[in-house]
């Protein structure tokens, strides 16, 4: 018995040592476990030193998952490419529109840019939206909305990947196993309302809608694009019936950049025809359209 307990103790120490810095494994284990009596709705992270995401001693709130939480614990940052791209730009009087804002971490970083005078966020999934409000409560001139944007006003099925709190989508797949019903409103009508309330401002738009970005972009009225200085959207494929209008609209912009970490490290300037090559790769990339 003593030998058995010794072996168990040694094995336990070995496993703990191996997993001590593997945050993803730890939180994935929590997500996969059966929580019959209680659960942890969110966690608070207090920063020991400043980063792009938070200042020293500041607290952020986020859901337990195997992707976003481990990355922030390990690096102190999250998805900085958009902030790094924008911090070199010389712009004035900009309203930043964050569609699919999730925990609000992109908007939190963008709020530090001096030319950002207003931020508007949209997040349809209420548990995440409540954390977004906590994360962005200290930002001035911000307006947060607990609904998503689509082609019309409606309640829609919204699918969640329990292992990745950033993977919420109108499009179902094998990883998005949890189904919710969330509120969505008409994209063009909301943008018209924003235009009427920000007549002296130009716009930076960011969409992160896990596969629905192209449809949103195609549906947006050209009058709104005329006031858009930069448009960020996620992309990995474009349906054949969407390609004509998509390429017509991206040619409305003067410059096109692409961020595709699986193919190249740095952001690259491309032509609209080069985009076909990236679509052939069948990997997710970020498209940056600049006027």
């Amino acid at each position: 018995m003593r030998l058995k307990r010794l072996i168990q103790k040694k094995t336990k120490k070995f496993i703990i040592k191996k997993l001590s810095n593997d945050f993803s494994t730890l939180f994935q284990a929590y997500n996969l476990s059966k929580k019959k009596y209680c659960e942890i709705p969110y966690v608070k992270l207090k920063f020991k030193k400043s980063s792009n995401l938070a200042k020293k001693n500041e607290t952020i709130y986020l859901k337990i998952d195997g992707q976003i939480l481990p990355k922030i614990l390990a690096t102190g940052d999250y998805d900085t490419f958009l902030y790094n791209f924008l911090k070199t730009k010389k712009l004035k009087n900009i309203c930043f529109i964050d569609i699919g804002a999730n925990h609000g971490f992109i908007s939190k970083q963008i709020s530090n840019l001096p030319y950002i005078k207003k931020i508007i966020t949209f997040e349809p999934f209420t548990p995440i939206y409540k954390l977004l409000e906590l994360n962005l409560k200290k930002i001035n001139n911000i307006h947060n909305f607990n609904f998503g944007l689509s082609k019309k006003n409606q309640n829609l099925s919204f699918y969640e990947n329990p292992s990745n709190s950033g993977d919420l989508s109108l499009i179902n797949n094998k990883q998005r196993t949890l189904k919710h019903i969330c509120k969505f409103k008409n994209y063009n009508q909301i943008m018209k309302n924003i235009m009427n309330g920000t007549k002296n401002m130009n716009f930076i738009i960011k969409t992160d809608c896990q596969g629905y970005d192209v449809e949103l972009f195609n549906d947006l009225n050209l009058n709104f694009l005329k006031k858009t200085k930069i448009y960020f959207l996620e992309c990995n494929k474009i349906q054949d019936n969407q390609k004509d209008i998509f390429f017509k609209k991206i040619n409305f912009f003067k410059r096109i950049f692409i961020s595709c970490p699986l193919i190249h490290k740095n952001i690259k300037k491309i032509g609209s025809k080069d985009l076909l090559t990236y679509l052939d790769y069948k990997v997710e990339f970020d498209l940056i359209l600049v006027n």
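The chain has a mean pLDDT of 90. The CA atoms of residues 1 and 7 lie 10 Å apart.
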